[in-house]
Design a protein that fits this description.
Helix content: 25-40%
Distance between the termini: 56 Å
CATH topology: Nuclear Transport Factor 2, Chain: A
Shape: globular
Strand content: over 45%
CATH class: Alpha Beta
């Protein structure tokens, strides 16, 4: 017998969007709210693995300092739901604008998720860098 997990998959895709918009807006508390109470983020910045709401929220200014203005786009989600837990693998197109340059990179997220207090959240999110794919100068935008 097959279970229809369509609602859970759509909720997880919405979580991806909330995560992207909150970190891009540098809203630490909203970004941290995308994780479970003891959720952890395995960052591209060496030595940084924030865990729990306080550390996650405080990590957003570190990201802004390191990267500048960020834009996260997630695609090609492969989501497997098993009751109140799930796994996801998806592409991240990561754009940063800093010092007159806009750079784009391709990464992959590897996620473990759980339903906590009725909402899907990240238990762990690991981002793996794959390759840069574009660099634009402010002159290119004109």
């Amino acid at each position: 017998m097959t279970t229809d997990n369509t609602a859970a998959i759509l909720e997880i895709m919405r979580l991806n969007a909330r995560y992207n918009f909150s970190v891009d807006a540098a809203d630490g508390p909203a970004w941290a709210d995308c994780f479970t109470r003891d959720g952890v983020f395995y960052a591209l910045l060496e030595g940084h693995t924030p865990k729990g709401a306080d550390e996650l929220s405080a990590f957003v200014p570190v990201l802004v300092e390191a990267f500048g203005t960020m834009h996260h786009l997630t695609t090609n989600e492969i989501i497997d739901v098993d009751g109140d837990t799930a796994t996801q693998t998806c592409y991240l197109q990561f754009f940063v604008a800093n010092k007159g340059l806009t750079q784009g990179s391709l990464c992959v997220y590897h996620d473990e998720l759980a339903r906590e207090d009725g909402a899907w959240k990240f238990v762990s999110r690991r981002v793996d860098f794959k390759r840069p794919f574009t660099t634009l100068t402010d002159d290119d935008a004109a």
